[in-house]
Amino acid sequence: METKRKLVHTEIMPIRWGDMDAWGHVNNTVYFRYMEQARISWLYGLGLRGSATGEGPSVITASCTFLKQLTYPGNVETKTYAGQAGRSSVETWVEMRPSYDPEIIYAQGSAKLVWVDYPKGKSAPLPRQLSSLFED
Fold first, then answer.
1. What stretch of H or E contains 122?
2. Are 34 and 76 a contacting pair, CB within 8 Å?
3. How far apart are CA 1 and CA 116, in angstroms?
4. Percent of residues in the chain assigned helix, strand, coil, to nearest 5
5. Domain interval for residue 45
6. How many domains does the chain have?
């Protein structure tokens, strides 16, 4: 059974010269930074900023499949998709394409977000902005 996904955010970020490693391509760890920035921009756009003294998101799993090597110069377009939300969690997926080859996915990533009550150290119900993603 295929997981239902909804496009929730698109962002274009510069590929910086310093993102590359000694082999002349974007270092694998930087792909996670691109996904992190896209995720934070999406949540901020929903008005969800989180607080270390209150509630906010926590990534409990993250992965990336590197299909082709991103290189400088250029931009990377990230498309973030979300799955059906649970009580306190939501799955997300990201596709990354460079500006110099926009028809090809160069990397695919995913992360599971859990909404956390930080002082209690426990999961909490998702805010309405996330729990209602598939309501029309």
1. strand 122-123
2. yes
3. 29
4. 20, 40, 40
5. 5-131
6. 1
Phi, psi torsion values for 117, nearest 5 degrees: -90, 100
What is the distance between the alpha carbons of residues 27 and 90, in angstroms, rounded to a whole number? 27
Rounded CA-CA distance 78/45 in Å is 15
Residues with Cβ within 8 Å of residue 14, at least 6 apart in sequence: 74, 75, 76
Per the domain annotation, does 127 fall within a domain? yes
The tens digit of pLDDT for each residue in 71-124 reads: 999 999 999 999 999 999 999 999 999 999 999 999 999 999 999 999 999 999
1 pLDDT higher than 60: no
Contact in structure between 10 and 80 (CB atoms under 8 Å):
yes
